[in-house]
């Protein structure tokens, strides 16, 4: 390195620092890679929430109905004399209908009428295959009191 007389007379605070001195940097690229790998691993290995689904009976005949044009009711497994009924596709607690028969009947009819206003003429009833038919019949009876709906019972397609 050549001698620079001006640099010898400068105070240490005014001298130029050597390139790379005092510049400590951490390369976080490997940490980001590991984070994404862990995210992908957990997304691939996780199982969807089994509590919100019902086990449907298998179908022998029939055609599919679009859920986008349908009002959907889900009947869960009965834990007592009444089966829980949800005004949604799945067992979602915020859509649980009341246990009182009159209130439940009114809530079902109100949901079906709201579906008709939203241009949803189809009504799909999803019931767990272990649900007694009397629970399904009660929902079907409530739905049938509303004019102009097409009622469909959901089944599992075996194909």
UniProtKB/TrEMBL annotation:
One Gene Ontology biological process: protein transport
GO molecular function: transmembrane transporter activity
This protein's UniProt keywords: Cell membrane, Membrane, Protein transport, Transmembrane, Transmembrane helix, Transport
A GO cellular-component term linked to this record: plasma membrane
Subcellular location as annotated: Cell membrane
InterPro entries assigned to the protein according to its UniProt record, in alphabetical order: ExbD (IPR003400)
Top-level division of the source organism's lineage: Bacteria
Membrane protein topology class: Single-pass membrane protein; Single-pass type II membrane protein
Pfam families: ExbD
Positions of the UniProt region annotated as Disordered: 1-22
Family: Belongs to the ExbD/TolR family.
PANTHER family: BIOPOLYMER TRANSPORT PROTEIN EXBD-RELATED (PTHR30558:SF3), EXBD MEMBRANE COMPONENT OF PMF-DRIVEN MACROMOLECULE IMPORT SYSTEM (PTHR30558)
Protein name per Swiss-Prot or TrEMBL: Biopolymer transport protein ExbD/TolR
